[in-house]
Design a protein that fits this description.
Residues 6-78 form the MIP18 family-like domain. This is MIP18 family-like domain-containing protein. It holds the Pfam family FeS_assembly_P. The radius of gyration is 13 Å and the shape is globular. It has 3 helices and 5 strands; from the N terminus they run H-E-E-E-E-H-E-H. It is an alpha+beta fold. It has a single domain, classed as 2-Layer Sandwich (GMP Synthetase, Chain A, domain 3). It has helices at residues 6-13, 56-68, 93-99; strands at residues 17-18, 23-24, 31-36, 42-46, 76-80.
């Protein structure tokens, strides 16, 4: 069984969009961490732009689903945290430029 890499997981997460903002969760800086154990179980720690995000359930399920599609992935756990809270400074340079940050 080939080991799943953090890079593969991050690429999959780039396909998960916050439809309210129109950017993927990686570019927005919403992914705080990716852990992969010896059995290719993946834990993604992420946040949302706001705790009141109306798309929270959809975004979390989409993230889990996209990671689950990676060949070799066993179990996927997406943990939501708001500590530390998200700020626009966590976004990629491209997103910051578009938002004028």
């Amino acid at each position: 069984m080939a080991a799943v890499t953090k890079e593969q997981v991050m690429e999959a997460l780039k396909e998960v969009y916050d439809m309210e903002i129109g950017f993927d969760i990686v570019s927005l800086g919403l992914v705080y961490g990716v852990e992969i154990d010896n059995e290719n179980n993946v834990k993604v720690t992420m946040t949302l732009t706001t705790p009141m995000c109306p798309l929270a359930g959809f975004i979390i399920e989409d993230a889990r689903s996209k990671v689950q599609q990676i060949e070799g992935v066993n179990k996927v756990d997406v943990e939501l945290t708001f500590d530390p809270p998200w700020t626009p400074e966590k976004a990629s340079d491209e997103v910051k430029k578009i938002f004028g940050i």
